[in-house]
Amino acid sequence: MVTHLSKIKSDHRPLSLFFNPKLKLPRGRPFRFLAGWVEHPDFEYFVSANWNFRGNMADALAEFTSYLKVWNKSVYGHIISRKKILISKLADIHWRMNFSGSNHLTQIKMEVRLELENVLHHEELLWKVKANVLFRNLYGEDPGPMGKLPASRCPRLDSVDKYWDTVGGAVYFWVKAVFNGRNITSDLNNTLVVLIPKVSNSFRSISLCFVLYKLIMKVIANRFKSVFLKITAHEQAGFIVGWNITDNIITAQ
């Protein structure tokens, strides 16, 4: 590891080389909305009870995220740990049923099995979130397009589509404020760059941005569509809606 030391007498900064450095790498993972949360029966109530927008979108998201992290640990729980516990319980019940065929054990077995199936369902959703095959277009435009967004398409830094009735008013307010001159703060312009193996032996960088930021960009892009039709030539098919760049071959012929 190489570090620059402070200048003392010379106008050059000396270099310090560490051959066995103890690197302190940042721990933890960036917050991302999990598709499994929307399947939880209490999550809709949690959103309506804890979403509090007072004019500042960044503050509202930060406050809600802090509540959501606590809820994820205390209510939603760690899926893998819960699965192991339930499998162990089910195995213990099966062992007991070898010596006793009581209806009580049968009832407990059914309850544990149903809970395990629910946990396995959430685990499946979690792995779908992690699966690269689900990395597609997850953004839409203003309220109408937001209503068309797929609810559990892929991982994202935030999610506003599923509970539009609760957060829609805040999104309306924020979008109008941005187009009236308010700056998009850095908290809402964070980008998570990930490497996705789209083709064999080749990782492509994909940027995961906030849905809110992409919402603004989509509105601007849609407004430019009508302008592009007037300023682009037929040979520039890549800029014309409904055209493909390969259409230039037909035009040339």
UniProtKB/TrEMBL annotation:
Entry GO MF terms: RNA-directed DNA polymerase activity
Keywords, in A-Z order: Nucleotidyltransferase, RNA-directed DNA polymerase, Transferase
Protein name: Reverse transcriptase
Organism: Gossypium australe
InterPro entries: Retrotransposon-Effector_Assoc (IPR052343)
Domain of life: Eukaryota
Keyword Transferase in annotation: yes
